[in-house]
Design brief:
Blueprint (H helix, E strand, L loop, with lengths): L2 E5 L3 H11 L6 E6 L2 H8 L5 E5 L5 H8 L4 E4 L6 H10 L3 E4 L17 H18 L2 E3 L8 H9 L5 E11 L2 E2 L9 H9 L3 E4 L2 E4 L7 E3 L8 E5 L4 H7 L9 E8 H11 L8 E3 L2 E3 L1 H8 L7 H10 L1 E3 L2 E10 L5 E9 L3 H8 L3 H18 L7 E3 L6 H12 L4 E8 L15
Helix pairs in contact: 1-13, 3-4, 7-9, 13-14
């Protein structure tokens, strides 16, 4: 693949574009975003890139930019994802997205379930990409993305799998309060929607901020709370049980500064989308909180200023717990930590925050596997469907970026901490 379109050049998309610029097989990179400043900033530093302002609400505008490209990398907000994947199909290009697009509208007018997006990707869109002999690889950031590769890697230790817990903790705190180091509207939206867990073999909606567990995690002092959170990971496990050794229970659980903040707002009904009247004026609490929340630092000089002021905390953790049975019939938990640069280290390396380093660099590694022809599967797939050989290569490439795994196999009995914590009755 020589000609790549990168849609959305925020932290993740710009990371992909920069890495593509250094790849010998890539001849041309088209960078597109609604934010002209962001486009100009990235193109200025890349000798293989050209920039365009694009209105992602218009599928035809994306398709025009995508004409002749080999791969469309979608780093847009999820509401524009269906336009991006349709444009890729129209020009017969492969497609990669950091997450799954927003749910398609239902013919009956009812609010669609989040799972319907996955049904569309792995149903009709799978067939459409299969028909043109191209790949549509979705959910390719850090979580989802890197964490799904970690889950796949953990399956090596098991003969069968019962439960998979995926936990992420983000504890970066600046002098000024940034609850999220990415888009507040996306963060709040994910916080208030029903998460989906795999429970006894079925994908089920659960309550926001439910399923709380406490964990002591490496690199973070003291026990921390984790809550069920809307993400792709557990749905992918449920849709592809064959690569997860028949796993029946899975959950993505999230903790940290932003979660604690959003949970308080949620409990106060400050993230409601229903109108309220205040002093005779109608407001939407959710919209008000989005407007009032300090946006995440986006540009190099913004991040530099924050780090120069000093961080109150620079902690985080990504952890996978895979419970199952080994070939010699032992009940075990395969515990895997993802080790990656923190906020300060990531900025010194690449001008990125810790969160965007892991997401952007982790996402780019999937792009690299595509452009180098390592991923040969056609149709739609998630990162959990990589072969073990592809997993090995991905992790080898990740190691060069100081993204590494630390795994241990721990004997388990019912009643062990965390055992079946997302299973029936928990």
């Amino acid at each position: 693949m020589e000609n790549i379109l990168v849609l959305g050049v925020g932290a993740q998309g710009s990371t992909v574009a920069k890495r593509l610029n250094d790849h010998p097989d890539v001849k041309k990179i088209t960078c597109a975003d609604y934010d002209q400043r962001a486009v100009d900033a990235i193109v200025r530093d890349l000798d293989k890139a050209e920039g365009h302002r694009v209105d992602a609400r218009k599928r035809e505008d994306i398709a025009q930019l995508a004409s002749g490209v080999d791969l469309v990398v979608d780093a847009l907000p999820t509401q524009f994802g269906q336009n991006a994947i349709e444009a890729a199909l129209e020009v017969e290009a492969s497609y990669q997205a950091f997450t799954v697009f927003d749910r398609p509208a239902r013919a009956d007018g009812k609010e669609p379930e989040w799972t319907e997006s996955f049904d569309a990707v792995f149903g009709p869109y799978h067939e459409k990409f299969e028909a043109i002999g191209k790949t549509a690889l979705v959910s390719t950031g850090s979580a989802p993305g890197v964490i799904n590769v970690v889950v796949r890697d953990a399956m090596r230790e098991l003969e069968s799998c019962e439960t998979i817990n995926m936990l992420v903790y983000e504890g970066v705190q600046a002098k000024k309060f940034f609850p999220f180091w990415w888009s507040p509207v996306v963060a709040y939206g994910d916080m208030v929607e029903n998460p989906y867990n795999l429970v006894d073999g079925k994908i089920e909606a659960v309550e926001p901020f439910g399923g709380m567990v406490e964990r002591e995690v490496r690199g973070v002092e003291g026990a921390r709370k984790f809550f069920d959170h809307l993400h792709d990971e557990a749905i992918l496990v449920g849709m592809h049980p064959e690569v997860h050794l028949g796993c029946k229970n899975a959950a993505f659980k999230y903790g940290g500064v932003g979660v604690d903040w959003a949970r308080m707002l949620y409990d106060m009904d400050m993230l409601s989308t229903s109108p309220r009247v205040v002093d005779g004026k109608e407001i939407i609490p959710f919209d008000m909180m989005v407007a009032l929340t300090r946006p995440a630092p986006k540009y190099h000089d913004e991040i530099a200023t924050i780090l120069e002021e000093g961080l109150e905390s620079d902690t985080g953790a990504m952890l996978v717990e895979a419970y199952g049975t080994t070939a010699d019939s032992r009940k075990v938990m395969v515990e895997t930590y993802v080790m990656a640069p923190g906020c300060v280290d990531a900025f010194e390396r690449s001008g990125l925050t810790g969160e965007t380093y892991l997401t952007g660099q982790g996402g780019y590694l999937f792009t690299e596997l595509l452009i180098e022809g390592t991923i040969q599967q056609i149709g739609a797939m998630g990162p959990d469907q990589l072969t073990m050989e592809q997993v090995d290569l991905y992790l080898e490439k990740a190691k060069a970026l100081d993204i590494t795994l630390e795994t241990q196999v721990i004997e388990q009995t019912p009643g062990s901490p965390g055992y079946l914590m997302c299973g029936p009755g928990v």
